[in-house]
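Researcher: Please translate sequence to structure tokens.
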Amino acid sequence: MSLFDRVADLPVTVESVSRDRFESDTSSGFLRKTTVFSLAGDGAVGRGEDVTYDTEDHDALADAPEDAFDLAGSYDSFAAFSAALDGVDLFPTKAPERETAEHYRRWALESAGLDLALRQADTDLASAVSRERDPLRFVVSTRLGNPPSADRVELLLDRDADCEFKLDPTTDWDDELVASLAARARVRILDLKGYYEGTDVDQAPDPELYERILSGFPDAVVEDPAFTDETRPLFDGREGRVSWDAPITGVESVERLPFEPSWLNVKPSRFGTVESLFDTIEYADERGMSLYGGGQFELDAGRDHIQLLASVFYPDGPNDVAPREYNLPDPPADLPTSPLVPSADPSGLEF
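Model: Translation complete:
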């Protein structure tokens, strides 16, 4: 029985749909806004977070009528609920700023529906798929400012000397900064962001930067390089260190990669549907690929969900799912440390 089959037959009853806005300043210097969908029925509430990045999309959603998402009904299975979402206009007031937002909003509703179905069945995800929630290793994703410095890394290491990191190199990283970071031996992933276009974090393919990173952090995973005639040869013999994130939206996207990967960053919202996510996890497991979870500055239920999924499916990976406090411009002194311990009596998609 596939992972999805284990949850597909759960019935779910939706009586109402509501939305709540959240916002917070972040360590990356922008105001993060998200929207949480709450699906209520039979005395339970399932929640899912829309992590669309563009504020305009959340503003437009706030202007939508309360009944814009008419999902009320009794579905004989979660699979039927998911199929019903195929016909829902996810952006009823305006087209999304980016195509990727379609999957993000679909995931918000899918995860809310699964959360509700599990709660109505008086169970939790790990029990439903016959797995355990294990202690969760996490790394902290942070940018290093402009001009870049190791200050943020030092601040977090002052709070937790065992903190591990996922960092976003930029062309401004020089040999001195790389050596300083490497000397701390706490960097696990370096995200080259080679697939981003039209965002504040775009990083064009840079052969000098790539070689500096590959040589300076010989044991680290290198995520999302952009391959060009100049950069591809740098990875000859180093393919096993490469991970992919932004292009991964399902099994077909994995099959389209330049070579079979050793690593994948699993961001659930990129997949849109629970079935696509679960199918990809199984596909990767069958081929011995190492997985780790990725975060998107979730502000509410979404963070709990990505921590749960990592705990159930890839708890020992360098999971970029640190508690929300790590994303604050000035994180508190008493930060939670890795590994995170799952809650004692979960329901639905609770970690």
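Researcher: Any highlights?
Model: Residues 3-127 form a domain with the Enolase-like; domain 1 fold (CATH 3.30.390.10).
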